[in-house]
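Board notes, transcribed. Complex of a protein with zinc ion.
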Amino acid sequence: MKCTDLAARIGKLTTPHGSFETPSFIPVIHPVKQQISPSFLKSLGFECIITNAYIASKFYGEKAEKQGIHQIVDFDGPIMTDSGGYQVLEYGKVNVTPSIMAQFELDIGSDIPVPLDKPTGYGLPYNTAKSYVDETISNIDETIDIIRKNRTDKNNDILSSKGEIWTGTIQGAEHFDLVRYSASLLDKKGFSFFAIGSPVELMEAYEFSTLARLIEATKLSVPNKPIHLFGAGHPLTIPLAVALGCDTFDSASYILYAKANRYMSSSGTLRLEDLSYLPCCCPVCSDHSVKELIDEIPQTRIINLAKHNLYVLKQEMSAVKQSIYDGRLWEYVLQKARSHPKLMDAIHTIKNFEYIQQNTPVFKQKAIYLFEPIDQFRPELKNYRNMLINNYKSPNNNILLLYPDQGIRPFYSSSVLRKLSSTFTDASICLYNPFFGLIPVEISDIYPTSHNIFTKHFDEYDPKSYTEFLKLLNTFLKNNTFESIHIIANRFIKKLLPVIELPKETEVIIEDFVGYKLD
Ligand SMILES: [Zn+2]
């Protein structure tokens, strides 16, 4: 793993046909009717593709087994194969058994095969969903028997015959206890790669909060294993899913959207007919006006729109990976959340996910940016406040001086601190900041207390919306006792004074920051 941010990681997946970097978008190609060639996908930097083994078996049969799927679809890189689960979701059943499908996927040389599963879909009653989960598990048991029979190295206990990576498909959808049950059971069966099944309807309905909870349930069950998200091909879904720890995605959205004249952009999809301009610089958009695209014969227009959509997906993957490198994934996901209110709702769901903060680096090279109350929940600040509550004791119990954080960095070597120290010779000096809570000066050089830039207009919001500030301050005052508390109060803390739990026996002096002068 190269680097991490939130629950996202940049890593590498190694298959018999080569390695590829994750997070990765894996475009779906039809094994028979390819409208976009795999070589075009490769030229754009998509290193792995997915195709449907069920359709390949119906159309090519033995020819696919003889030639192998790489020759059939003309792609020499890693190929993932779906097994008919999608057809089950669409048509109810397929006329093939899990064992036959597993043997076929092995015979055609799939790098990342998927067992024949029974997708839960979305909106099923609990007991029906449970029966689908059980059917998938029983299919998987049949698949495992086939994998074992095909093993070349009989002593190897890894769930693989020739180096291929089998996918443990997790069903259960919005029934999160079924998701946890399904994921834990597959983990015990030896899978090293997992896929979250059937969230397509959730994503189509923009139910990003439920999707986030589905990913959380999976990640808590199999915390470190690579996770694939089926059917995620929307520019708004990908950054959220990456931030929550999904590593690979597949979708046919680029071609399906193209058929419906839907033009992808980094902030969502637009209808071609509604556009006056093409807000993109890809070769398709550079060569065409909106009218020229609309006037094309449907087949040409679909290909051109599909290519444009692929450029947008590629750009999205690069942008999200660069954000991981920069330690700015939180900022990036928040930018995206401005594109749709339901995505912002999902941010309010994930702000309470503890696993995100556990995986966020404890030190980052770049300053974090703080704009508005939601940013108090970013993982670096939650980690900081936890540290302050659990590991910090004030070195001095005489006077606590609370002074407003003016954004001076580093504060410990500032002239303001020198003046404060000479005025309050016997005091514990703490800056107060709506995003951090408190910053005791003796730790004002550690990350992230001196590695941040915050807007000075934070008090445009109701101070009570900085709930973590208030919690931290009240806990700090319980954990540390002082003979007197001296507050140099700005507008923000003045409004909070009625709800700050100041200790009753302690002398409290409040001075207005406006007009306050240091010698
Ligand atoms: Zn374009």
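The pocket of zinc ion is lined by residues 280, 282, 284-285, 308, 311 (CB under 6 Å). The radius of gyration is 27 Å.
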